[in-house]
Design a protein that fits this description.
Largest sheet: 4 strands, antiparallel
Order of helices and strands: EHEEE
Shape: elongated
Strand content: 25-35%
Strand order of the largest sheet: 1-4-2-3
Structural class: mainly beta
Radius of gyration: 16 Å
Distance between the termini: 47 Å
Helix content: under 10%
Number of domains: 1
Length: 81
Amino acid sequence: MDPLLLGESINTYDPALALRGQTGSFLVNFGDETLVITCKPGHSISNVTWADHKDRRPFTVTKITEPVTMTENTVPLRKTG
């Protein structure tokens, strides 16, 4: 799957499968519940599915942040006080 763009949403029955290879943070909505899942390279979630398959609805996954990377021009935060 191509990387999701910031603000892009998809519907899926398995968010872990949909987020495989993605980076950044994602809101995962299902009914009245919301999770925030952060994806990093080299880390994975096996699967996320409904425990009760009688009322199985798709999850809505929305990318909310891009990953932050350190560069040569990044100034580290300094502790004050």
